[in-house]
Amino acid sequence: MGDAGKTIFLIEDSKEIRTLVQILFESEGYAVASATDGQDALDKLRSMPKLPSLILLDLMMPVMDGYQFRQEQLKDPLLATIPVYIMTADGNVDVKAAGLGVEGGLRKPVDIETLLEVAEKHC
To answer: Number of structural domains, the chain?
Structure first.
C-alpha cells in the first residue's frame, strides 16, 4: 500500500480494467481502492477513514452509473471536494466532463502516460 496521500479511488464495472489500473498505480507507489458501480462507491467512500486524493469514474455502469454517482457525490459535502476524472469510450469526453463539472476526462482505452500525469497532479 502506498502512502495515504496518494490514494486513488477507481469506480469501474470492468474487472479487467480495475485490475490493470490497480497494478499500474500500485507499481508507481499509489494506494488504490475500487468500486464496481456508483452505489458501491458511495458506500465505500462514506466508510473510508481517509478520503482518496482522486476519483477515476467510469460513466457506463450497472446499478448506479457515473452520472448518478456524480450527482450524489456533489450532494455530500464530505465527498464533493474530491477531484474526479471521467473515463469513457465515448468520443465526446470533453463535453461530458464539462457537463458533469469534473476536472477532466480520459478516453478509453486510456493512455497510461496521461493517466499517470493526472494522478501525479492530484496526489
So the answer is: 1
